Request: fold
Amino acid sequence: MKRILTAIAALAVVAGSALPSFAGMIDDIRSRGVVRIGVSLGGEPIGFR
Reply:
């Protein structure tokens, strides 16, 4: 039980530290007014593997 609580606490710390970085990216997207999406055309589709 103690292991599970330790794992949950570690996940909470990691998730909490990742949120500010996502907020910065959203602010950048809003300031540009455009969502840019990149697609790699170099490899074969996953269905062909």
